[in-house]
Design goal:
Layout: E1 3-5, E2 23-24, E3 45-50, E4 56-59, H1 60-64, E5 69-76, E6 81-92, H2 93-100, E7 108-113, E8 118-122, H3 123-126, E9 132-137, E10 140-141, E11 151-153, E12 166-172
InterPro entries: OxRdtase_Mopterin-bd_dom, OxRdtase_Mopterin-bd_sf
Pfam families: Oxidored_molyb
Protein name: Sulfite oxidase-like oxidoreductase
Amino acid sequence: MPITDVTDLYEEFGDERLPPGQHETSDFPVLSKGNTPTWDPETWSFRVSGAVDEELELSWDEFTALPSVTQRQDFHCVTGWSRFDCEFTGVTFPELAERAGVHDDACHVMFTSLDDYTTDLPLDDCMREEVLFAYGFDGEDLPADHGGPLRIVTPHKYAYKGAKWVCGVEFLTEPERGFWEKRGYSVTADPWAEDRYS
């Protein structure tokens, strides 16, 4: 599968690839709100709900059979580190949204995870080809401690917007707040503006 390089995305948001207040690392630290959940590919399902024409419930085999892409992206953690040139494989957010048929009055998105983590984003911030439901990392399955089997990657946002172990997405007609957003983290989460906290 060809790799699409989207590491120039920063040009839309700032002058430097490394956002202010960040340091580059070749490591990939593991940060989670709790323990890594277990999952069973035979019973796992992914749900698309809310303001859509067709609510979807996809098995693991059905999800991984969807058209996929591999992208080279940068990854920015709110705690101050960035990892360049990550290769993620998965399904783009617009691909899934198109299959569900998003209503005109939908304006916001809530992601849910196997560990009950939630995070929210405006719909416009999600409807980008760089926003992936990723199940592959650097040519291998996405490791469990980094969100496998499936996580969201959001290279234009701090990574707490990229829910690990994601198992559902709800299209909303009014904004709602996710786990960290309710606890004072920034709603916008723009690394180039250093939008870390509200």
